Structures are given as C-alpha cells and as structure tokens.
Amino acid sequence: MIDLHTHTNLSDGTDTPRELINLAMAQGITTLGISDHDTTSSWEEATNALRPGMDLVLGAEISCLTENEISVHMLGLLFDSENQALQDLLEESRDQRIPRLKKMVTLLNDAGITVSIDDVHAATPAGATVGRPHLADALVALGHVSSRGEAFTELLHNDSPYYVSHIAPTPVTAIAAIKAAGGVAVIAHPFASQRGKILSAQDFAPLVAAGLNGIEVDHRDQSASERDNLRAVARELGMVITGSSDYHGNGKINRLGEHLTSPQEWEKLEAMATARRVVRK
C-alpha cells in the first residue's frame, strides 16, 4: 500500500509526525509520503519514528499560482533537503502566509466576525506552517462555526468575500526548484473543480517541458469523470500516475490510504530522482 501525500501537524494536519508514522504502520501502509505545506520541518521526527517494515518518502507540497492566478499545489518528493535554493523558496512561501491571513482577518472583522491574528497563532501548533486551516480552527474555538469543514464551506473557500490570494511561485518555478534539488515533481489534484478554478488539459504542456514527473489522478476531491480525463492526459503526456489520500488527521475527512499509487508507477517515479532517498530502517 503506497500513499504518497499526507500531512502532519507541522502544516495543517492534526497528527504529529510520530503519530502519523505509527498509524500508517498499523494500517499496513508499506510506503508513506509526507509532504507538509511549504516546509520540511516534519522530516526529522518522522525519520526518527520510522521502524522496519515501512518506507518513508519525504517531501513538501509547494503552494503555487499560475500567471492567471489559478491555485496549484506541487508535490516535491525525494529532493535533497540541503538544497538552499529550494529551502529559500519554501521559506518565502511561508513568509507570505502571515500578511495574507492578516488581510483575511480584517475582512472577517469588517463583516462582524470577530477574530484576531493572535487567535490564529494560538490555534497553530508550535513550529507548524500557519495557513487557512488554522484560521478555521480559530473560528471554531471562538464559536463562529462548529468545525474546520464548516469554516471552509461557509467562510474561507476560494470564492468567499473573505478570501485573499497569496504571492507564490509559479508551477514552472516550483518544478524547476524541485528538479534542481534532485527530486521529482507531481502535481496534486489538478482537476479538483470543487476547490475552485482548475487547470485545463492544455495547461500541462509547459509543466511537462519544465520537468513535471507525475500527476495525482486518484484523489477524493476529483470526481470519477475528472479522474478519467486526467488519467487520459497523464497517459498522453507520458506522466507517472499517482493516487493518494491527502490525509490531514482530524483536519479533513480524508482517510489514510483511501487512494493509493500502484507499485509499478511508484517504481517509475522513484527512479526519476537523482538519488535513492527513500528512508528505510
């Protein structure tokens, strides 16, 4: 069982890296990818928690924006964590999150929904990359909504009047940084229309030219028809096809291992990195 896309509480998940490792092993996951948003801060604890019987694939999910401001998430896996250029890109992405959240807090307050940036920080685990899920958690703590899911459905979705876009690298820039660091780049849930604007099939050509390795096809936020269309795109372009849970602990309803990558596709993807960086004990 190969699940290449999960999150810990060092971004917007709720499990610690150790808890996630233990859960994955208990559920029979044989290869687990951890890709927290714009950070590698979970790598050390996850590596220390690993035990024989499971392979660990370390990475990061980089928040990107196309030139026409479509939000894209790029999974960078198996890259060299010591690559300074990629770490600088991740740090810049993290730094943009605070001004964005402050603007969203102001819009909410103007509408009579009282919340402060201090409330957001209080809802963010120590060392975590702060983001909209933590604003959602603050709204839950203040009684404005009953759950993180309700916060996104009612207040924080991409078409909400309280939504603020963010400064981020383009997908091409992110792919180039991942590849320069020796890793592989997989675009996450690119046809998930329920999240907002999505890419078209024609948008993949420059990504492939930049070095895109794979496309996340099997994901709960993509309908059956979206998956079929995306699978056809991936095959036409010669891309590795992945599936994953995008597990966030209690932060989302996604279940660990609910979508998986085939061993054959994973073997192809791993071979595209410049070194064998899978962690084993």
TrEMBL record:
CDD domains: PHP_HisPPase_AMP. GO terms for molecular function: 5'-3' DNA exonuclease activity; 5'-3' RNA exonuclease activity. Residues 2-66 form the Polymerase/histidinol phosphatase N-terminal domain. The lineage of its organism: unclassified sequences, metagenomes, ecological metagenomes. This is Unannotated protein.
